[in-house]
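Open question from group meeting: does this chain pack into something compact, or does most of it stay loose? Before anyone orders reagents, we agreed to write out a predicted structure and look at it together. Recording both the input and the output here so the notebook holds the full record.
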Amino acid sequence: MKILNLYAGIGGNRKLWEDVEVTAVEMNPKIAEIYQDFFPKDKVVVGDAHQYLLEHFEEFDFIWASPPCQTHSRPAFIGTYSKEGQMLYRPKYPDMKLYEEILLLKNYFKGKYCIENVVGFYKPLVRPQEFGMHYFWVNFHITPFKIKSREHYGGIEKLQKLKGFNLEKYLGIDKIKTLRNCVEPETGLHILNESKRDVQPELFR
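Structure tokens returned:
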């Protein structure tokens, strides 16, 4: 099974996948290097995941993408304002590359795909499946599952235990942010397994 893992980070979603051939794309060279340490058999590309998807999507059986979530997230939107309603930060355009990727895969890709992001501050423009505080745009049905606490406000030790990655030896990265960005390995495994069910992708277009 050939898998494209976009915005790969250190590989939270990929951690429990077995018997797969993975190409991972990560923009940050230091993070990509850590990913390669954890998954030495994967092909790691340091570059723009958005552009790589456009140029290579036809080469894979399954595609996972976890685009940056900050401009879509509810906490970031709420944090823009004080209790008195005064604006604390200038608003940012939501990064619409998220929807470019959804529409590309939904209409042109013949395999299975999952695009993961946080629940946004607005009604999604394309309907996802929702579990916990996350949206999943897929072309197959996901059996309901429960996402454990993400420990976003826990320390490095709690996050490392939850995500299953030890970053002690790595320097020059924001370890808290890197671990918070990790999709829980159990979630990645559950969704990959669901994609293997004998369901025609066209049913979920």
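Observations to bring back to the group:
The chain is about 30% helix and 15% strand.
The chain has one domain: 2-148+183-204.
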